Amino acid sequence: MAKREGEAESVSSAAGGSTTPQELGQQALAGGHDEKSSDAVTPNTPTSGTGGRSNFAARIARTELPTGAVLLVLENRATPTIALRGSLRAGSYFEPRDKPGLARLTADMLERGTLRRTKLQLAGDLEAVGAQLEFTADPFAVEIAGRALAKDLSLLLSTLAEQLREPAFPSEELEKLKQQAIAAVQEQQANTRQRAYEKFSQLIYDPANPFYVHTGEQLIRSINSITVEDVRRFYEERYGGRSLVVSVVGDVETSEVQRLFAEAFGAFAGPRASVEVSVQDPEPQTGTRRELVLLKEKANVDVLLGTAAPLRRDARDYYAATLANGALGESTLSSRLGLQVRDREGLTYGIGSRFRAPSLAAGPWYIAVSVNPGNVERAIQSALTVLRDYVSNGMTADELADEKSSAIGSFKVSLSTNAGLAEALWNAEFFRLGTDYLDRFPELIQAVTLEEANAAIRRYFRPDHLTVIIAGDYKLNNE
Amino acid sequence: MQDEKLPGRVTFVAEGEGIREYRLANNLKALLVENHVAPVATVCVLYRVGSRNEAVGYTGSTHLLEHMMFKGTPTFNKDRNTQIAATLQKIGAEFNATTWYDRTNYFETVPSDKLELAIRLEADRMRNSFIADSDRQSEMTVVRNELERGQNEPMMVLDEAVYATAFREHPYHHPTIGWRADVENVPTARLKAFYDTFYHPNNATVIVVGDFERDSTLRLIDEHFGAFPATEESIPEVYTDEPPQQGERRLTIKRAGELALVQIAFHTPAVLGQLGVLSNAELAARAANPPAENDIYPLVVLSALLSNGVTSRLYQALVETELAVTVNSNCDQFRDPGLFNVYATVSPGVAPTEVEAAILAVLESVGTGEVPAAEVEKARQQIMAQVAYNRDGTSDIASQMSEAEAVADWRFYKDYAANIARVTASDVQRVARTYFTEDNRTVGYFIPKTTNGAQTNDANGSDGA
Description:
Structural class of chain A: alpha+beta
Low-confidence stretches of chain B: 451-455, 461-465
Shape of chain B: globular
Helix content of chain A: 25-40%
Number of helices of chain B: 17
Strand content of chain B: 15-25%
Number of strands of chain A: 12
Oligomer: heterodimer
Strand order of the largest sheet of chain B: 1-2-3-7-4-6-5
Radius of gyration of chain B: 23 Å
Mean pLDDT of chain B: 95
């Protein structure tokens, strides 16, 4: 039924999503994405049935082609559909320093014509059967997401292969894409949340860091300068089967998927360049600084308080840190920050804290809160009071127990759809966690001790060393 | 098909495609869909009250009340360390509540061994919520900040203005979030009155989807929801029809921003094809026995054909030609007659008038030109694939069923794909000619001003950007 999937309310990025205001028009109790600390790379963690250990590992088939490309398949006959998730290591980390936006444009160009078919033909063949295949670039990966009716498995995989292996990069399509990308950047300049995060990243990282976000002006200048030759060179250096990971979940035969995958990607060699990632964490910030991003005629102000956090996905204390953040700011309705700043004081619709995408490198940690211009100072002070108390006194044993059951329960919930399972399989492979990760997750969570959680709180949350950004129609006191 | 051993107060009503409808003695409707794919279940409680039930002075009350429903009951509250959100959070539930024009719903997806807790909690807050004045005061500012966040988004601001212009009399005129002054000033007693008027078993549907055992779940529903009596008075009805629009309406909003927006809206029928407001009883009768012809289905196919994907007509005419950065369309599927909307983000340096003209030319072409059968077939396949995707997971199934119950009943969900499959090219052309008329349309522009007050692209396209 065409209308509204998903939680309404927070407006998606301006980059041309297909959401209409009426789809966003319903009012939800709690907003979607930003208040949640679930990071973008890992799924909302957790498993195990009513008691016993789950056994996904026995049902997951993992194969690796001689080129290094990895396929994971899980049969699930619940509906006659399939979900596909995948990645290549060709994100913005790998683009030349003076060409921000190149990785994203290259990924977007994959849908805009191959040596065999034009953009219109590619889209026409997928749209005729309601299939979808999309590429986006994040700091490290070009992410692939697809879905189709089960009968169209072969079409989905062959189209993916054609786009990844035989892109044509037609110049007139690049010119159109550049204009659209520039308009999207321009539109985001009016978005308080986006502008707050942009400024925040610029203060805590140097431009070489993969989490640094360029200004709109820099991005527009760079996008304008990118040529077909730039795109082609980046593709030839960075795309190849060696870093390809694909997971397929749904109403499929494992052997059939494996056969089609080998056919499609058996000869996908390369890339020539290294796909390894090596990032130096920034020096820890000392002292607190505060900056304003002025955006006129905005009813709401977005505030970020945070810092670079030296947490990577493979860190020993990853689970302890995740649980530590959970009790502080996972839920705007029930975590410490939400209970004080929203529930008791009524200062905000949304407050939460999160590690943003701990991945192959360490990303930031921050508290995000939306607030009326008249309540900015109160909200900041209230959030800081909660944070200071948390860091001084730590979390309680009861809180940790609740966070554990929450993480384990919500992991189980996340594994109840094809899309959720495909995401979890891809995630386990991308971070080399093993196919038994889905089964081991509850044990990994249960193993965290209160001492470890409290050590993580002291390590990552530093209330006297924060970068505070206020974006909206607001005046700082000292101005 | 009858059940063998139903609890005393439960009656089996109907069954179709795995959905089973039951009725409790207090007239609560229960819908069950067993699905043992994963060890989870979704509970969703739908109340037939939305912002269509509000009027001057208390717009936004339905939504504010929905927030108050998380403030607790004598059983679930902060003092007892059983706060509603914390109770759900700690079992790993995915939960929320939403309010819209036609309904309010509360839902949680939980590990299946926690189903009893979810049912007990939802039943408890149906009749036992505090709705205290002190809670309203702090929650009002939460909701006001939610409103402010919406006001930050040009698309939301324009959409709100278009609905307020296209609907002069019917309550779709005002947004679900409410007008700011109403949100700020509505008395707690009004919220309490709303609660006591609409939150009753005979105005609700309980939907359970997932990994559960039918008999024991029916017993749980009966034990917890069956405890409340039906109201003695009938639930108040909405009867305010929107009169036919007689002539184009236009509006412009000028505000800080970056890109101009164009929105064009046309009045359409309600989801069961009716052109006016129906009482609850009339709606139930029509849903159980829907008309053979219903323009909603061709309108939904028309929307897909216009804007779904690169091959769609509006994409080709506006994005491919670089007049617009994005273009979308949507046909409301509401309880009462809604709107068919087209939304475009205007490319930098292009005049909104040019985008408006291009959209209108495309809409005109459907009614007067060729519509190949293959194009309609593509649109139908896209919608039917989407229907299949929306059955992946208990939460999506419960959500779709809840929307169907709010505007018609669950049969609307069950028969949706079959009804879409029947749509022909001539149906699509007929509805385009019927509804895409000048007198029936409302046109809205959002014109961005730069921070110094200049306009970056004004309505006529003299370009300052």
